[in-house]
Specification:
Length: 442
């Protein structure tokens, strides 16, 4: 009994040595909490760009591999790359609007080309984050996060209606798609709002399982052809998707890496405070950003999209106080194992698009509300309300009426056609130009 208690307490120490029997369930809880969030962005990108089923499987595999590599590097830093704290890393939803825009404009090779350059630049962001952090107060980062959430709603609703394939064959928005999407959404919300513990943090996964089961019962929606043909062991082919370099795509990706670095600081700070009861050090914050950056470069080579710390896993750490490195070592290894198994990736691609839409709308809503929460960290006085309002109004307005840019050079169209980029540029510049005002909200 004494040995069991002692071993159990090892879970709550960074260098603790819990038994495998105690560490494994904790690790799987983290894997299940991040799984759907990690494989969904590559699936959405693959569908948006009409990639082949084989390429979609490879993107999904790469997402698991790069998530595992980044998780392990953050846990065990190498030459200052990584923070040395527990964290579960995965492909970031926040990059979706930029990835979609670059992919539609130039193709997937341009996504990875711009990611390679932006990852390299972001290493220096990590090195000098202490000096540039003051340019990204909550009013700036909150506006960007809010803009990201709002720009993702069209993607979620399109998937709820059946996706691009359904739009092509005329079945978009049919009753069966509505049923799948709404059941998935209802189950996800029920678990998230009324569940406790594991049920609460795994609401999205449980919702997808429920929607998937109904889709199987409907017949003709789930296709197992690619799953049956997929092999058991394989690794993504380096440079399979190619690399292309376009200035506007690189610029947008660099700006997104800057914004994501600010958000990473928030997640790492939450981990340090919730898991260890202290503030994160500058070395840990810089290491987290540098680790994330170099893994972005690795991801560009193997087909893994940009990563960030997963908020749901940060929440799990803060709730359970389980911080033992052994737990997160298992998480990383399980992710890598899933990444080298094409059968896993092929199974994930059988999830119907309405099911993904019903589940991801909750994620996009959470991103939006995170932006609003960030904005609330500064007083919403007249100055701040006008800066945020103008940035969102012009950014979303231009994206809604793209013809307003018809006389602009193509480079300007590509950059200013994104509500995220326009909102970011406006809020960033106005926050610098307009005199600071910390008076109470008016």
């Amino acid at each position: 009994m004494h040995t069991e208690r002692k071993s159990g307490s090892e879970l709550f120490s960074l260098n603790g040595k819990p038994t495998f029997g105690q560490a494994f369930p904790q690790a799987m809880q983290h894997v299940l909490a991040m799984l759907v969030g990690n494989i969904t962005p590559p699936m959405l990108i693959a569908s948006t760009l009409s990639l082949s089923a084989a390429d979609q499987i490879m993107l999904t595999q790469a997402a698991m591999i790069i998530g595992g590599i980044t998780t392990l590097l953050q846990l065990y830093p190498v030459f200052g790359f990584g923070m040395g704290l527990p964290s579960v890393m995965g492909v970031a939803f926040a990059y979706m609007p930029i990835l979609t825009m670059i992919g539609n404009q130039y193709g997937i090779a341009a996504i990875f080309g711009s990611q390679l350059v932006a990852g390299f630049v972001s290493i220096f962001i990590g090195m000098f984050m202490g000096k540039i952090r003051r340019f990204f107060p909550p009013i700036v980062s909150g506006t960007v996060v809010l803009s990201i959430g709002l720009s993702l709603y069209k993607t979620a609703v399109t998937y709820m209606g059946g996706g691009s394939a359904a739009q092509a064959d005329g079945s978009f928005g049919s009753g069966k798609f509505w049923i799948l999407a709404l059941v998935t959404l209802a189950v996800t919300l029920a678990c998230s709002l009324f569940g406790k513990g594991y049920l609460k943090v795994s609401g999205m996964l449980i919702g997808i399982v429920a929607g998937y089961a109904i889709a199987l019962g409907m017949g003709g929606i789930v296709d197992f052809g690619q799953f049956q043909e997929a092999g058991w062991i394989s690794v993504p082919i380096p440079f399979h998707f190619g690399l292309e370099f376009h200035f506007d795509a690189i610029l947008m990706m660099v700006l997104m890496y800057v914004v994501q670095a600010v958000q990473t600081i928030g997640d790492v700070s939450s981990t340090a405070m919730g898991g260890f009861g202290r503030e994160a050090t500058d070395k840990e914050l810089g290491g987290a950003i540098k680790g994330q950056s170099i893994c972005g470069m690795i991801g560009a080579v193997i087909g893994g999209l940009p990563t960030d710390p997963y908020s749901q896993n940060v929440g799990l750490i803060c709730t359970t106080k389980v911080v033992a490195k052994k737990v997160f070592l298992i998480v990383g290894v399980v992710m890598l194992a899933a990444g080298i198994c094409p059968k896993f990736g092929a199974l994930m691609t059988t999830i119907p698009q309405p099911v993904l839409g019903g589940a991801t709308v909750t994620v996009f809503a959470a991103i939006t509300m995170s932006g609003i929460q960030l904005l609330g960290e500064q007083p919403m006085n007249y100055r701040n309300k006008m800066i945020v309002g103008i940035a969102l109004a012009i950014g979303i307005g231009i994206e809604a009426v793209p013809d307003i840019l018809q006389f602009c050079p193509q480079l300007a169209k590509n950059i200013l056609g994104s509500s995220l980029m326009v909102s970011f540029l406006i809020v960033f510049l106005l926050n610098i130009i307009v005199p600071e005002d910390n008076s109470p909200a008016s």
